Amino acid sequence: FTTSAPPTATSFDPVSGSELTSATGNLAITFSENIELGSSGAIRIKYEADNTNFQSITFEDTENISITDDVLTISHQEFPPSENFYILMDAGFVRSTASGVAFPGIQETNTWTFTSPAGPAISSYDPANNSSDIPVDAQLVLTFDQSIARGSGNMVIHYQDDGGDAVIVSATSE
Hints:
By secondary structure, this protein is mainly β. The protein has no helices and 15 strands. It is elongated and about 85 Å long. The model has no long low-confidence stretch (mean pLDDT 92).
């Protein structure tokens, strides 16, 4: 008798070793044949620097995975800027729809790697950084090297002498 060969990964999106164009765009693997979810396992997105998990997605997590024919699409949390990642996938996470043979997984840390896009950087400060004798009612202007949108969280202005918080500005402030 003969056994069927397992599906193989034929391409990764993004291409391994590349920089993402979006911190929120989906990841995708194209296989050599049509696939379906297996019966166990997880996909782990890991930080390359220290091998810790950024996000783990189990086969039961249908909100973050979808399959169309031979393509597995993975949605994920927003990647922090300028970080290197790699993907691991447990054997059996997906299998062939024709034969039922499981994909052997992604076991090597160098099989699918990528870098998250750099975030915006401040290109100029007004008043200039480290200025002194600035009027108390002066407007602070930060100019970025790319378009930005209001996010969440706070901007904290610190006292220079002791580092204590001088002003906390919420992203919801006008």
